[in-house]
């Protein structure tokens, strides 16, 4: 199969001997191949990571440890096979269409369901981390020290602000890491979740950053519906500001790295808006 290494192809033949590719859902910007296949009369999703991929292992960890509250309700794909070393996994295909770009993206009911779903994930056991904030600051500084198109004066202002931030202990919970309509499916009115390649233990508020920069910014009623479904607002103002700044820097830096100019422009806008609230 195109995009799979010999080792990955061997494993897939063992797991799904008669697999037939129906669709290639690969994104193209990252070294991950995503295939929709049929085998034995059932439909599956195959994800295979390239040499530089670090998302598959995260996704496997999420499936094994954190997705039970969703998979038990049929609201996330169930893991069938996985191999960390080969960077390969197979899940059951989840019916539905992406919310992104459809009328569902503008409906408060979608966000109310998404908020309730996220609350289930975040309600799992938390962990205290005294070093989380320092590590996240270091990541932001690394982005600023690397290649990007953030204006020099803005980059220096960001460095100065980060240097002055406190580094209090953080409460970490299982997070999705890319919580937005492009990773939500809707089927018969029910919202479900896909794509766990950025799943990790983080502060709960971090899962609101993509929405805050996009859909919530466009329509405050969507934010209100989301928080109604979630049950509360997990954003402490000071920690939320630090999170927004870090997310903005990473967005601008990553998008420049992969050549996504539209997303890069969003990152620059996010930086400007975050700094405006300093």
TrEMBL record:
Residue span, Aminoglycoside phosphotransferase domain: 67-239
Pfam family, one: APH
InterPro entries associated with the record: Aminoglycoside_PTrfase, Kinase-like_dom_sf
Superkingdom of the organism of origin: Bacteria
Full protein name: Aminoglycoside phosphotransferase domain-containing protein
Organism encoding this protein: Dactylosporangium maewongense
Lineage: Bacteria, Bacillati, Actinomycetota, Actinomycetes, Micromonosporales
